[in-house]
Write a structure and sequence with these properties.
The chain is built from 7 helices and 17 strands. By secondary structure, the chain is an alpha+beta fold.
């Protein structure tokens, strides 16, 4: 049949998140998950003995990938460990020593497992950087209650509206985001507010505010600008904004500079990578390797560094020769303009899946 059919179910499924004592003050599902993830990340970061790496070559990159789950009784359990041999037993013992019992995840009042992955990379002889889920402001930004924009919002937002921001110690900041058109007028204005009414009010107020009161470090096309609006501090929501408007910018191929919005530029970036891969990859190779017929997944992780060059290429593929070919192809990716955040070049990580058809 060529007709569209809508299927629906009258029953409603109810799911509650995994939780623990130190995260029970949080009300929102994603905040609780973030809190749990940070707790597990901190545990492994503190307990793993990174000096176990047997190599003396300090340029050797060590990768630890730990698959875990919280079972129906709330215990943290190990699934698999992908790591050098010397770390495997060590990590198993660490998981066994995890003492806190979680409140398990439930679906329709039945406890179900909750999967989690911990991933860490570091150079032999060193330690990894600690994963920070909560980011501080760049040093050039100092949110304040004593600037014109803060004073303007304080006069026009009611106390109950500010409280409806639903911020907490995890989700600390309500941001305003926007882009500028050719005439310097804001468009694509959004917030990360959990209240639609509050978002609409903030956008309406922003549209009537004089942008000449702001300091823009850069007004280049395809920048995405941002400013904090409300910040959770000392257990309450406070209007705090910047005189200086921050901006972010994704890596961009020269051919994508004609994009009209940052979303278009991002989609163009993705298409250029796919096009590059299709043009350069040896399509005859997979069929020469004796693999079973069918679709084979290839997962590519890489980074566009602060200079706009690709590096840290990691590949999962069904054959070592395919892995080598993917790395060769991706290494030839042309240089792009680097990502920017807060007026500074930054490293941007990407993950791209490809499907190969083996005939």
């Amino acid at each position: 049949s060529n007709s569209n059919i809508i299927n629906y179910n009258n029953s409603i499924s109810e799911t509650s998140p995994v939780n623990c004592n130190s995260c029970k003050d949080l009300d929102f599902f994603p905040d609780i998950e973030t809190c749990i993830h940070q707790k597990i990340n901190d545990f492994f970061y503190e307990k793993i003995d990174y000096s176990l790496a047997k190599t003396n070559d300090y340029n050797t990159q060590i990768s630890l990938k730990i698959s875990l789950f919280i079972d129906q009784n709330g215990f943290l359990k190990l699934k698999t460990v992908e790591a050098p041999t010397e770390f495997k037993e060590h990590i198993k013992n660490i998981v066994k020593k995890y003492s806190e019992i979680f409140t398990p995840k439930t679906k329709d009042n039945n406890s179900i497992p909750y999967d989690y992955k911990y991933f860490s990379t570091f150079k032999a002889g060193g330690t990894p950087k600690k994963v920070k889920i909560f980011n501080n402001f760049d040093s050039i930004f100092n949110p304040s209650t004593k600037n014109k924009f803060s004073e303007y919002l304080s006069k026009n937002l009611k106390v109950e509206e500010i409280n409806n921001a639903n911020l907490n110690r995890i989700n600390k900041i309500l941001y305003l985001y926007f882009e500028l058109d050719k005439k310097g007028k804001p468009f694509q204005i959004t917030t990360n507010s959990r209240s639609k009414e509050l978002e609409e009010k903030i956008i309406s107020l922003f549209k009537n505010y004089d942008l000449n009161n702001f300091i823009f470090f850069n007004k280049k096309k395809l920048n995405k600008y941002f400013s904090p609006i409300i910040i959770f501090e000392n257990d309450k929501n406070i209007i705090k904004t910047n005189n200086i408007i921050g901006y972010s910018r994704s890596p961009i191929f020269p051919i994508c500079n004609n994009s009209k919005t940052t979303k278009e530029a991002y989609n163009c970036f993705s298409k250029q990578i796919q096009s590059h891969f299709i043009r350069k990859f040896n399509t005859k190779l997979p069929n020469k390797l004796g693999l079973s017929t069918g679709r084979k997944k290839v997962f590519i992780n890489f980074r566009i560094n602060k200079k706009g060059k690709i590096d840290n290429i990691k590949v999962r593929a069904p054959h070592i020769k395919i892995k080598e070919e993917v790395i060769r192809v991706m290494s030839k990716l042309p240089k792009v303009s680097p990502g920017i955040f807060g007026n500074k070049p930054v490293n941007i990580k990407y993950s791209i899946p490809f499907t190969l058809l083996i005939e």
